[in-house]
User: Fold this.
Amino acid sequence: MELNKKIKEAFCSRNFKMGGFQSMIMTVVIALVVILNLIVGKLDLSVDLSEDDMYTLSEETRKLAGTLQDEIIIYYLCQKGQETLDTGTKSIDMERIVNQYGKLAHITVEKKDPVQYPAFAKDYTEEQVSNHDIVVVNKTKNTDKYIQADSIIVSEADYTSGSYQYSIDLEGQVTAAIQSLTSGSAKKVYITSGHGEVELGTAFTDMLGKSNYTMDTLDTVSIDRVPEDCDLLLVNAPQYDLTEEEYKTIGSYLKHGGKAMFFLNMQAVETANYDKLLRDYGVHVVKGYVVDTELALRADVPLAFFPNVNSHDITGDVGNARVYMDYSVGLTSQSDERGSLSVESLLDTSEAAYSRTDNKETDYSERLDTDIKGAFSLAMAVTDTHAAKGDTAASGASTSAVSEDTDFSETDTRLVVYSSPDFAMDAVASTNQYGNRSMLLNSLTWLTGEEISRLAIPARSLSQATVSIASDSIVFWTAALVIVLPLILLAVGFIIWFRRRRR
Assistant:
């Protein structure tokens, strides 16, 4: 009887009730966690906590998917168990990124193991496939595009540190493939050659390719007219002048509604015909090269600077990103030469800028008598809407800079002129850290009217984020965490022990 009484009292005790209550709460919490985990797994919900939102598709990709009408299939080629790519700095779950496309309308993702399906990729490429290769197929139009894994991981030169940074371009490549397979015919860019032009950087050519432009070179010496399929003529910093015939050929293309992007070269020899071509559209090239001590990147390098940005469609989304420019020639405008001509400056130097005309003088501490005083423009956008030669005479505007043999007719001509080829160099055009990339993309949009060019998504950095701490801060925090904090905890513990001992 006494034993039964003790057992009954044990089950009715306060400790038992408290323990039972805690056990019940733990059981309920565990059950809720299991149920919640099952719901999250069923709905495929996850939170991207990675740097640069590595596993989240950009808003541009989502907007593109929202306009799709064709059915797209993305085949991810990878052996089972090798979905993670070790880049040396980070391990990237490639399959997880690709699977994000499957959540968008009209897009399906399928994984294909090249070991199990060795002949699958032969329908799309003759190349030897490897893990992480991707095939994008438009099932509606029966077209496809093959993306090699080697093109997904890219290297970028960082001119500020002199090192290379590695990035992943998976979304950029896949989204570019989707837009090229679903958009209309590609735009054609002809890049002039034969005058020592600077070679386009990989960042800019990648930008053109992702924006659905096809590129071809054009030897203007051997032609009598620019091809009819030319949507954009690109002249990248020639070192030698155009011939008189080339001037007339390009001039004819422009006056009949041509679109062109010009980059200037401060190292060029006398380029009278090239300069005359630009003067026909109100852009005047100033002799020498620009020095700007007020906007300089560093006081000892006044040839590299962050210019002032003016309001325009091309600069509209630059935001707080600084635009980088170096080794530039100065530009001025004469938009009153024809009533139909509009010349707008996109980038300006400060009033302290000047153009150094003597290459041998490298002391920039003060302006010389031979220097040309600024300010200057460093980039210009030109529109010629109906350039009839008679309009000039009617308006009374000066025609001194317009060549007498230029026969302007009804046109809708557009030009963008940048005063240095370095504006599009890889170090600044491959990242959104600078406004250069945005301006180049917007220039393509403004020139050709193709809004799709803005979908050239940049690669995402694979560099590990680091925190730099000054040496004096290191000493302070080391002393605080290693000495001061332990002493405080020891003192608090001693006080608690002493008070309890006296009770």
In short: The CA atoms of residues 191 and 217 lie 5 Å apart.
